[in-house]
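Q: I'm writing a short methods note and want an example of a predicted protein-small molecule complex. Could you take the sequence and the SMILES for pyridoxal-5'-phosphate and return the bound structure as tokens? Please keep the output block clean; save any remarks for afterwards.
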Amino acid sequence: MVGHPSTTSSWNFELERLHKKDLFRHMPTVSGPAGRTIIVDGVEALNFSSNNYLGLASHPALEEAMIAYTRRFGVGAAASRLIAGSGEAHRELEEFIARWKGTEAALVFGSGYQANVGVISSLGEAVDLILSDELNHASIIDGCRLARAQVQVYPHLDLERLEDLLRVSGYRRKIVVTESVFSMEGDQAPLRELDALCKRWGAILMVDEAHAAGVLGPQGRGLAAELDVWPEIQMGTLSKAVGVSGGYVAGSRSLVQLLVNKARSLIYTTAMPAGIMGAALASLKIISSEEGDRLRSILRANGETFRDLIREYLGYRTRAGHIVPVRIGDSRRTMEVSRRCLDNGVFTHGIRYPTVPEGTARLRFSLTSVHTQEDLHRAVSVLQSALHTDNWAACREVSHVRLD
Ligand SMILES: *Cc1c(COP(=O)(O)O)cnc(C)c1O
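A: Understood, no commentary inside the block.
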């Protein structure tokens, strides 16, 4: 069907603008499960663009659990959580998450996005100042936009500036929100120092562990657990290392009660299917077991190899981790280098504004425990030639040099 001509052309105007700025996006179609390799728009490539850090997204135990729970409870939950959609499967998963995280309670949302929006917007009524790191994820930003509280954004990881903002009096309750491992930088928030600052200035700490849960800490509990920090609000997703779908918040029983009463992204949406709950539960059982430790140690070793290879082939230093940004700067060039990598069998998606600040477009390599050492060699060598083909002189902006 073709739309009415005048409607179509009014969208074209906006689309043209995106094209001109090299910010036009499309959704590539992938085939098959997201594993070590992936077929993107019909081209098979090594997959460095997934958040499937432990390779669990197509694990047979998760598939079996999803089928078993679906057989038992049906496909759709048929109602919202507060009406009649909150089943035994939801409770079982929430109890497991709370035990795993070492908190009194946990609450599952339809996605990590919904969890952040729900939590921050509802707390916005109970707190009057929200302090948010400038590189926080869009779901945190949107939660802040919906919150009826004052929001202050502090420069990335800038504790001095944050303390200045905390010091300002006249606010009854303050909350500091940060990611633990930043999704597009791969760097870590200094949670111990942040926790100490919050205690000193009477603020609540909320940590988004989307990219750390499953990957870091004892039993994969996240960066806070690794550093033995206990933020009042811990948020995470079931869609990244966990390999399924959904988001959660772990904290005190009263926090969960407040969210059940206030979080509109929980209340006004249909409950998640039980099959998802079953698969997430099976995944968390693996994550918190010795098998999880084994997968995490492979992932850690892959991160170290990748760092060494980047230094060897490209001559710059980066940190060892499962998220490695290669900053190029210019949007068009980033997408060209990404395309060239794909043509040579390596899928690493270009990341542009507004996902990252303007002028900092990059390739984002996500490593997983299913990548082999040869895959990592291949990736860095393909990246090197893709960057060089691009005219090295023009590529001086490749500046992801971090001395740590
Ligand atoms: C992906 C992500 C989310 C959202 O999680 P989904 O389950 O994908 O909706 C929230 N916070 C951060 C930091 C993320 O990277």
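A: Remarks, as requested: The first strand starts at residue 30 and ends at 31. The two ends are 55 Å apart (CA to CA).
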